[in-house]
Every structure is written in structure tokens, then in C-alpha cells.
Amino acid sequence: MNAQMFFFIVFALIAIISAVLIMALERIAHRVVAMAFSFFAVAAIYFLLGAEFIGIVQIMVYVGAITILFVFGMMMTEHRNVGFGPDPRKTQQILGFVGVGFLLAFMLYAIVTADLPNSGEPYVGSAEIIGLELYGHYFIAFIGSAFLLTSALIGAVVIARKEAD
Q1: Alpha-carbon distance 2 to 37, whole Å?
Q2: Between 58 and which of 43, 69, 95, 104 could a Cys-Cys bridge form, CB atoms 3.0 to 4.6 Å apart?
Q3: Is 61 in the same domain as 134?
């Protein structure tokens, strides 16, 4: 086992454990911190795979923007008195974990047994090619997602303002 594989396993475990903690923790603030750790671990995996641009975008967009958006949402709403409803029965929790375990085992089996072609030469993309694709062919979708995110933020502010009144 080389160093790259060791760090890949470490970051993958951090991402998986953080994702489980997002669902298992009680307080919303702790869930946001676990989500940030999960995003950082995924960015580290991108760096290990040689996709530095995607890793930087992962840090800027998800760790920076999405996590801060959740923090602002926590600050604008009264989250201390809000519960998530009654706790599900233990059988439902056990069945959920067993189902997730089977899904994980199936995905790992599919990844390990996949017969992927090995070209020997890694693909090297550049930020210029990604920028030309994003602002050339997919410009309308890019602007649409910007409008969607802006309207979601405005909606969160309106909902938070009505709760304060």
C-alpha cells in the first residue's frame, strides 16, 4: 500500500463518518460542522486524484458558500426550540443502517470488480477548457442556477423575517 492509497482511505473514512454524523447528531450546529468536515474530505480526495481545480471549487463552493449559507440560516431562524419529531423506532434505525450497509457493500463490490480500461496516460484538463464549456455551451444553465440560488436565499430571508414578527 502506497502513501496515496493510505491517504485516500483516511479521507474516505473521514467523509463517511462525517456523513453519518450529519444524520446522527442532535444539534444543527454540530451537523453543520460535520458537513464541513465531509466537504473538506471530499476536496482532499479530489486533490489526491489529481483534480486540483475541482478540489479548489469544492472548497470554495461547498465548504465556503454552502456551509456559510447553513450558518446564516441557523442565525436567522429560531432553531433551538425546533425538534425533528419523535424518534424513529429502533427497528427502523437498524433497518436503515443495514440497508445502507448493503448498499455500501454492493457499491464496493461493483467498484472492485469493474473492468475498466486503462489507457496508461492520465487525462489532463485545464481550467480554460472548463471555463469555455461552462460559459459557452452551458451558459443558460449556469445563469439559471444562479437565479435559483438567489431566489432561495431571498426566500429564506422572507421566511426568517416573518418568523421574527
Answers
A1: 24
A2: 43
A3: no
Note the pLDDT tens digit of each residue in 93-109: 788 889 988 998 998 88
66 and 130 both lie in a single domain: no
CA-angle at 45, arms to 108 and 70, nearest 5°: 100
pLDDT tens-place string over residues 131-154? 787 788 888 888 888 898 889 888
Indicate whether 68 belongs to any domain: yes
- In this predicted structure, what is the pLDDT of residue 137? 82
Count of domains in the chain? 2
Q: How far is CA 31 from CA 17, 36, 124, 152, in A?
A: 12, 9, 36, 21
Task: Provide the CA 162 distance to its chain's centre, in angstroms.
Answer: 30
Provide the CATH number for the domain around residue 53.
1.20.120.1200
Which candidate, 139, 150, 134, places its Cα nearest to that of 54?
134
Full domain range(s) for residue 154:
126-165
Same domain for 61 and 135? no
CA distance 135 to 142: 8
